[in-house]
Amino acid sequence: MIDLMHLEKYKENNRIEAKKAIGGLPVSLWETYSAFANTLGGIILLGVEECSDKTLHAVNLPDPEWLVKDFWDIINDPRRVSVNILSDENVQIHEVDGKHIISIEVPRAKPSEKPVYINGSPFTGTYKRSGDGDYRCSVREIQAMIAGR
After folding, report:
1. Among 31, 133, 137, 149, which has the minimal tally of Cβ within 10 Å of its Cβ?
2. Residue ranges in the chain assigned as alpha helix (H)
3. Tens digits of per-residue pLDDT, 28-78?
4. Mean pLDDT on 124-131
C-alpha cells in the first residue's frame, strides 16, 4: 500500500494513520481500527510520528514483538473489539532507517461484519474515517450499516 522506506513522502489521510506508540498501544488505535474497517480500509503505522510539516518519520519501537502480542490479545477479545477481520499477514514488523515500526493493514469490513465497534457497544464504539481523522458514527449511520447486512 505504501513504500515504508520513504515514509517522509506520505501524510496522514483517509487511508493512513501514524501513531508513535512508544509507551504501548494507544487507546486511539482501536478507534482507527473501527474507522478503517467501517470505511475504505487503511494502514495504521505504529512507531511513526507525524512531524510539524505533516510528514511521517519512524521513531523506533523498543519492543515491537510485545506490542504485536498485545495487539492480538486485545483484537481477539470480544469485550474490546466486536470482530477481528485481520490475519497474520496484516500485522508486520519492519525496519525503517534502522528503527522498528509495525504496520497494521486494515481491510474494509464485509457488510455482514459491520459495524465494527469497540468497547462492547455499537452505539458508542463505532467509528468512520473522514480525511485524516476518526469520528464516532451517529445512530442513523450505525442502523444503516446493520440494515446493509
Report:
1. 149
2. 28-38, 64-75, 122-125, 139-147
3. 999 999 999 999 999 999 999 999 999 999 999 999 999 999 999 999 999
4. 96
**CA–CA dist 70, 91 (Å, integer):** 12
- For residue 117, give the amino acid letter: Y
Mean of pLDDT values over 127-138: 96
Using alpha carbons, select from 98, 100, 106 the residue that is nearest to residue 127. Answer: 106
CB 71 within 8 A of CB 91: yes
pTM: 0.96
**φ and ψ at residue 90, rounded to 5 degrees:** -80, -15
Q: What is the 3-state secondary structure (H, E, C) of 61-123?
A: CCCHHHHHHHHHHHHCCCCCECCCCCCHHHEEEEEECCEEEEEEEECCCCHHHCCCEECCCHH
Task: Please give the Cα distance from 34 to 28 (Å, whole number).
Answer: 10
